[in-house]
Amino acid sequence: MTLFIYDDSLLQYRFSDDHPFNQMRLLLTKTLLEACHLLDDSKIIKPRIATEEELMLGHQKEYIQAVKDAGNHSISKEACEKFGLNSTDTPNFNEMHEKCALLVGATLTAVEAVMSGKCNTACNFAGGLHHGFRGRASGFCIYNDSTVAIEYIRKHYNQKVLYIDTDAHHGDGVQFSFYNDCDVFTYSIHETGRYLFPGTGNIHEKGDGDGYLYSMNLPIDAYTEDDSFLRTFEISLTKACEFFQPDIIISQNGADAHVLDPLTHLSVTHRTFQQIPQIVYQCAKNYTNGKWIALGGGGYNIFQVAPLAWAQVYNAMEGHPPLTGAIPAAWTSMWQPKAKIKIPVNWNEDLEHYQAIPRRLDIEEKNEQTLQKVLLHY
User: Fold this and answer.
1) Is the model's pTM score more than 0.85?
2) Which of 162, 228, 350, 368 is most buried (CB neighbours < 10 A)?
3) How far apart are CA 174 and CA 177, in angstroms?
4) Under 8 Å CB-to-CB from 302, ≥6 apart: which residues?
5) Which residues pair with 184 in a beta bridge?
């Protein structure tokens, strides 16, 4: 059984009405899974709020205080600049600390469910805020729930954690939190930083000191399509698992590599999002006795992409083959009146009008060169 961490209060992580980060996609995912008869109340557990002590596993005390002050409108402009707060990406909002601590607590709820033996797999699609640093907000992320969760597992269970990040943006905040740590392996496949925030994630970022070779980055070229993405991902992730031999997997499942995402430049379809969780599921089966915690992340097309991608993750965690064919009409009719764009009626509708990229062979060759350069070290 896969437990699904959810409460309507998680939708309140919202910077503003016109900000691209919109947690309504959580509710869209939940209702889609329910319409597919994959999810019912027996599999849903409510999140708890992370304590300040727990937040300090991943963040500096003075930064946590600054977030509290920002949410109470009692912080200076200079302090905001110091801590990355109230920027265009991460504007302040009311009760910011409390709402962000709940998001982190939701990920810890998933961790506790798996580590206590209640289940082998659990997901918190409200989480995956991988750009948050120990003392600075960045890229729509205030607190970094992945960093806190990994430190929590290391402290309380002494397990080796493989962190897998398939967001189109590099998982910089998590990587640099564990850059010198050989008990945490951070893996990120993402659009090259030549064109996209945060600009990090080069193949030469391999960790430092005791952590050398425990960071793996696959920066793929803009406009990468399904076949090249999946080949690069499966081969490199399998090698990472062979090298690291993890005890547990935490995956960040950003859905913004999709061709319909408005903020990135990759060109994969739902075929990639059908296969990503199947590959991770097999890695968990082979290396961690099935222990796998899945988080959300990026994904800014909230009607056509994110809920479909995350439903595939939950479905794979349950051990099922990819969802294909028709999407339940009840879900489509529920949300179409609220959407300004057409909601898909089948899982691979994005293929119907897809046009191949003219530079496909050139892009595939570049990605293959990147893959082979990374594999040389393992």
Assistant:
1) yes
2) 162
3) 5
4) 22, 24, 25, 28
5) 161
CA distance 369 to 372: 5
Contact predicate 280/164, CB 8 Å: yes
Which element (helix H / strand E) includes 217?
strand 215-220
Q: Please give the distance of CA 307 from its chain centroid, rounded to a whole number.
A: 13
Give tens-digit pLDDT for 96-149.
999 999 999 999 999 999 999 999 999 999 999 999 999 999 999 999 999 999
Which tokens belong to 96? 């910011």
By C-alpha distance, which of 208, 233, 228, 234 is closest to 218? 233
Sheet containing strand 161-165, strands side by side: 44-45, 2-5, 121-124, 292-295, 248-252, 161-165, 184-191, 215-220
Residue 36 makes CB contacts below 8 A (sequence gap 6+) with 311, 315, 323, 328, 331
